Amino acid sequence: MIEMKELKAQFKTEADSILNYWLGMIDNIHGGFYCFCDADNNISYQNDKSVLLHSRILWTFSKAYRVFGDERYREAAEHCFLFIRDHCIDEIHGGVYWMLKYDGNLIDDQKHVYNQCFAIYALSEFFLSTDNEESLNLALDLFNIVEKFAYDSKNCGYNEAFNCSWEPIPNYLVCDTSEGVLAEKSMNTHLHILEAYTSLYKATNSLMIQHKLLELLKIIRWNIIDSSGHFGLFFSSDWKCVSKDVSYGHDIEGSWLMDEAAKELSDGDFANEIFQFTTRMADITLSEGVDRNGAVFNELREGYLLDTDRVWWVQAEAMVGFYNAYQKTRRHDYFQAFLACWNIAKNQLKDTVHGEWHWKLRRNGEPYSDLPKVEPWKCPYHNGRACLELYTRLEIDELSSYEVAPQPTLFTN
């Protein structure tokens, strides 16, 4: 018998451990957070500052404050918010920049929708956690900018890459496939638009944003998910898939993020369709993407080259995705898959010497010791969010022990 209360306590402890590590990245001289630290905790104090990383840090500390009420996390979120407000937003053309120097001066002014939506996600969560109206107004400004310049009225979905003044440019940041194709649209950007708009809807209850959630879910359901139940990853402007890559991490992450969006819909029939379909996606990940010891594989490159590395964010998202599937179905195999990923995370990915999680492990559990703990794409958002999400979900279930139960009704109007 597994006590949910004990599991919840484990995720509280791990969340605090991750967050305490990132408190050590605060730059009290130039503002914001340091954006590079190697595996041995050597901080590069004059490394460029990533706007994307700051958005993910803001989201994580904001959510942590909302869940735990720890004033240290509120102060860290406020510190990060002020840096984004004062340095990262283009006051002339709108939107957030891509990269700044260590002192907050501009280096790269391109506007990518992926980056805009993480800022929306973070600013919305900061509002939900602190009632900061300025933060919500900035999130709405970014939403309006994205809808004005990036929405594709012909093919639906969103064009992704723009220069400073919102003129289209090649999509180098997110859409490079293993086959060498430079795609125009990506699953990744559209999944994180959905994630951002879900949070913004919770902050506003705007019917327009709710309508956008419905439209995005339909795009993902009918244009991005392929007949095999996997996400297609890269697309032409008119939604022709141009890559055979499969990402098990994004499949399982998307399964629970789509559910979170569907919960906010007024269309109960379509929401139930999404709930059933995402359960199928979790099933496929469980049957195709899980190694013998329970670790989730990274990806299938070009449709056949299996990457067996254990990547930190993939295991984190799999924990939430499998537990989410368990909550919907009460199936034993989902709960066991969740526990297996958690065991990999706490026993292998977690760096008990220097803190935080290793970027990735080899199949035998050996860490890649040359990879940094902090850089523009290595953030507290995935593993921090997983711990916060599971703590919250287990708080609902903590009065019970683990057991198989009948499948509940998924959605009622």
Automatic annotation (TrEMBL):
GO terms for biological process, alphabetical: carbohydrate metabolic process
Enzyme class: isomerase
Keyword annotations of the record: Isomerase
Top-level division of the source organism's lineage: Bacteria
EC number(s) recorded for this UniProt protein: 5.1.3.11
GO MF, any single term: cellobiose epimerase activity
Gene3D superfamilies: 1.50.10.10
Reactions catalysed: D-cellobiose = beta-D-glucosyl-(1->4)-D-mannopyranose
Family: Belongs to the cellobiose 2-epimerase family. Belongs to the N-acylglucosamine 2-epimerase family.
Function field: Catalyzes the reversible epimerization of cellobiose to 4-O-beta-D-glucopyranosyl-D-mannose (Glc-Man).
PANTHER family on file: N-ACYLGLUCOSAMINE-2-EPIMERASE (PTHR15108)
Matching HAMAP family: Cellobiose_2_epim (MF_00929)
Protein name according to UniProt: Cellobiose 2-epimerase
